[in-house]
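seq as requested:
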Amino acid sequence: MSEPYYRTQAWRRLRAACLKRDPVCTVAGCTRRSVVADHITPRSKGGADSLSNLRGLCIQHHNMRRQGNEPWLKGCDASGKPNDPTHWWNSK
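struct tokens:
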């Protein structure tokens, strides 16, 4: 019987690279430490096991996503950017 993917060295390396790239939760406005390498497009829906399909999330935002709620703050678009064009984040 083969080893589950999330216990492989390949996954551990990919997870470590994601958390190194995203040390802080990637949800706009969140300042908590990233502890989960989350698939943007889930594996169950054809998402790739690649760094470009991963984002670092804190445990709270990861749990929100697991319960079916995308962890975007109120007033933000799907990318997490504020809808208000005058918001200071939009000037970055």
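The radius of gyration is 15 Å.
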